[in-house]
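Hi R.,

As promised on Friday, here is the backbone we talked about, encoded as structure tokens. Could you run it through your design pipeline when you get a chance and send me back a sequence?
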């Protein structure tokens, strides 16, 4: 196994992670209509996720990597993906925010390790892409962390108002 092959395996995993994030957040955004600030930010994040997915794919294409190996990576990501999917299937805004925060932290860890792998593999062209992705994920995680108390308050008001009127 070479440094480049390890790097490519990890890139495939990151691509699979972004594909799953796309599907998961695409399903979550419409359920956030009652939480307009969170819903708008998640819609923005979905676009960033799609862009990152394309950028990772471009890095993989530069290496003329086998796309059949990508299917293998999709299988490896299924456990993480299923956990994220289960968390994000909840209709409550606060739970979606918490789940999104956890998933963003996972993505921060992934891009942090990918940066190290890119350096060891000598992929100077991929480094800026991975640094930007790490920055986006870090910013989203920070935004979510700052807004979790607000999401909790909105959820409590929503639930208690619903209980009073229903």
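Update: got your reply. Pasting your designed sequence below so it's all in one thread:
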């Amino acid at each position: 196994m070479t440094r480049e092959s390890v790097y490519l395996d990890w890139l495939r995993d990151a691509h699979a992670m972004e594909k799953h994030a796309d599907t998961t957040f695409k399903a979550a955004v419409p359920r956030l209509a009652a939480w307009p600030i969170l819903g708008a930010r998640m819609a923005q994040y979905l676009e960033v996720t799609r862009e990152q997915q394309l950028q990772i794919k471009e890095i993989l294409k530069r290496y003329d990597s086998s796309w059949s190996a990508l299917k293998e990576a999709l299988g490896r990501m299924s456990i993480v993906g299923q956990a994220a999917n289960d968390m994000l299937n909840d209709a409550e805004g606060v739970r979606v925010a918490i789940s999104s925060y956890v998933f963003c932290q996972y993505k921060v860890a992934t891009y942090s390790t990918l940066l190290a792998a890119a350096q060891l593999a000598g992929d100077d062209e991929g480094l800026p892409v991975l640094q930007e992705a790490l920055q986006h994920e870090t910013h989203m995680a920070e935004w979510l962390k700052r807004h979790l108390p607000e999401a909790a308050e909105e959820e409590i008001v929503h639930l208690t108002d619903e209980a009073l009127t229903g």
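One thing I noticed while checking it: The chain has a mean pLDDT of 85.

Thanks again,
M.
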